[in-house]
Amino acid sequence: MEDIKESLSKELKTKLDLIIKFVPNYWNQKNYHQHFTKHGVVQSKYVHRHLSFLIQELPEDNNLSKDEVFIVLAAAWL
Question: DSSP letters along 19-40, please?
């Protein structure tokens, strides 16, 4: 399965890479959501991977734009 991130424009991919690089520092500071699913790099990678798969499996007439793909993948990390 290909990471849908690779289909983004250079600008959007750079922005997503920055999010992926810096957001773990936030989650590692403390457990912000003690009564919910543990958030962090492992959870974000899991969600990112599954969203990539689901986005690629959308029917052709429901494909997401590059901006929409960016928003969905960024949400997996934020």
Answer: HHHHHHHHHHH--S-TTSPPPS
